[in-house]
Amino acid sequence: MSGSNELPLLKSARREAVGALLIWLLVTIYSVGYCCAYGYNRDPKTLTFILGFPDWIFWGIVVPWGGSTIISAVFAFCLMKDDDLDS
Amino acid sequence: MLIAVAEIPSPGYSVLAALLIFIAASVWLGAMAQKAMEKQDFMQGFFLGNRGLGAWTLALTATVQSGGTFMGFPSLVYSFGWIVAVWIGSYMVVPLTGFAIVGKRLAQLSRQTNAVTVPDLLRERFGDSRVGLLASLMIMFFLSFTMFAQFKAGATIMKHAWPGSGIMALSEDYDAAPARDGVTKTEGAAKSFLKTWFPLDPKYYMGLAIFSITVVGYTLIGGFMASVWTDLFQSVMMVIGVMLLVCLAVPMAGGLEQASKAAITATSTDIAFGPGYSTSGREFLTPGLALSMFFVWVFAGFASPASMVRVMAAQNTEVMRKSIVLLSCYNCLIYIPLIMTCIAARSLLEPLGKQSDEVIPRMALLVTKDFPLQTGPFVSGLIMAAPFGAIMASVSCFVLVIASGMVEDIYAKFINRNATEAQLRRATTISMIAVGTIGVLANLNPPEYLQALVVLSGSAGAATFIAPVMMACYWRRATATGALAGMLGGFLVYFGIYSCGWAQNWATANSSLDLAKQILAILGPDPKIGPSGLFRPYYILGVDPIIWGLLASIVGGIGVSLISRPPSPELVKRFFEIRTSPISIKNDEPSH
Questions:
Q1: Residue A65 and residue B336: Cβ atoms within 8 Å?
Q2: What gap in Å lies between CA B269 and CA B430, rounded to an integer?
């Protein structure tokens, strides 16, 4: 291994890949976990609606979807680095 | 009160007019693309757009969108209810994972190797022509299934666009069912021949001919850029259509909450909960399958050969960053609004039964019926033409990727190593016409279950390519033998598990036979989960085979790499380290 000689793009790409995979993992655990806990085997009488969405869809999908969009934008504009593709 | 099908206005000539506008626009875009790529290197220009994709073209074309987004997906929402939001939920991170996991590195490697195709890149990166050949054959195999299904979908839409042919739909029950039992002994030989080889409605064959000639034609004229620009055009039309639909449909249903409550009244409370509404007792999305879908879309998204080629064509890394944001916003405007529209449809339309993939066309006609100045039919026609545009764009991309594999990975590498540009151009033209002809022949009497095969080939592609591509991008110790093991491991495990599923489904349907009993004794009874149809996979531990395929590919790729001879230091240095060229310092030059 020769870390000091490594292509700069490779270093930033690897770091960004790890970041993106971690975000995917967190979103998967949260969304699937929340929806399975509150959307399956539930008494229908307890169902409420938030902005027209069933409560478990709102908190399990709609909110994380909005959150992921913001996180993706922050990731792309603040954390990802521009590199020369021809390097 | 539910609206009967008869009360919805007929599409008349509006859909046909909209489709013709789409076709004309696509041919025009093909001609423009040809002008744009003139004076460039033929292979780089025709198959990769000279690596000049900007943020919009990259964001709105490098993803897994096709006719299914506008027809298959809404059909699932209409059929199973809110649980489909979980089924598609991972699209919230697809823009990020699609570009941030391998995007930059793949684009860099493709420049370092001067690769035009994914197999080209893998061959150079691993320094072994076997890797390129295997990758090329597998890509052709996977994409062919998907492409054949899209040919059929395009022809079916053209057929239904004719006035009096009913609403547009992709349902396979539509054209396959009445056709195959039509041959009788009293009919003449010629008639019998026609019924055997051309068993479907003549309008279908006319649609197939028009669709194929158009798509292959404009792709032949404009190459990669024609495919990309058509894709961008349909993506914009699609988002306009979805916004229009959701803004009109939800208020018409009395609001989203009211629509959900009406849907519950019309069906059962299952439509608002997991695992989804079903009249057959089959559980559509169990927790294990919900988890699987967060693997399927994410990994099939960035490892699909068609997507990887688009990423390789990105202009620079800034374009990729902007694409993440653009695509994230685009997905927000497509998927959740489509779900809202289809839930509203449950409270507005009479049950559609097997024709559930008509839900969007019917809603388009319904919500625009009171538009002033008779503009409703034309607006609904444009909304309905969006999936047709998506299918054209998909086929164009697949034709291009398959043809590029035939020319670059087989003809130029094995048949004619010193091919001139004129010979490459001729080979490209012949390949694309051959691919189009095969697509037409395969759809003269199209097999059923093609939609299931599309999902199968997409997931199998992900299971096959993710580990080798990740290894190529980030692992110095990865070897050619490891990459081959990763590809074959993922492919064989995925198809092995699927084959068990087919055997189980066949045995369930023929449970009185001895062989069927033996199969069921080994594999167990149908677990009654997942989608219906013959092409269900076998669910080990209740999850989709993509997870086992990925695991096998990773273990095979890493394991075999570690036990095989390490790659040469020169190869590693070429792709992982800064090039250090000798610097000659001239003493007579002034220092700065």
A1: yes
A2: 56
| ipTM (interface pTM) | 0.95
Residues B321, B325: Cα–Cα separation, whole Å: 7
Selected residues 2-61 of chain A with any CB under 8 Å from a CB in chain B: 2, 5-10, 12-14, 16-17, 19-21, 23-24, 27-28, 31-32, 35-36, 39-40, 42, 44, 47, 49, 51-54, 56-57, 60-61
Q: Which helix (H) or strand (E) holds A53?
A: strand A53-54
Tell me, what's the pLDDT at B451?
A: 62
* pLDDT 10s digits, B66-89: 666 777 788 889 989 999 999 999
The model carries a pTM of 0.88
**Token output for B569:** 């230091």
The angle at the Cα of B333, spanning B327 to B337, to the nearest 5 degrees, equals: 145
3-state secondary structure at position A50: strand
What stretches of B510-589 show up as alpha helix (H) in DSSP? 514-523, 545-563, 569-576
Helix %, strand %, coil % of chain A (to 5): 70, 5, 20
Least Cα separation, residue B93 to chain A (angstroms): 6
Of residues A40, A44, A82, nearest to B317 (C-beta): A82
Residues 6+ apart with CB under 8 A from B105: A9, A10, A13, A14, A17, B473, B474
**DSSP-based three-state secondary structure for A6:** strand
**Could you give the dihedral angle defined by the CA atoms of residues B453, B454, B457 and B463, in that order, rounded to the nearest 10 degrees?**
-120
Beta-strand ranges (E) seen in B333-464 are: none
Residue ranges of chain B whose pLDDT lies below 70: 1-12, 37-41, 44, 50, 61-68, 163-200, 447-452, 581-592
Contacts of B483 (CB under 8 A, 6+ apart): B122, B126, B128, B131, B468, B471, B472, B557, B561
Pick A68's closest partner by Cβ from B92, B260, B264: B92
User: Is residue B303 a contact partner of residue B469, using CB atoms and an 8 Å limit?
Assistant: yes
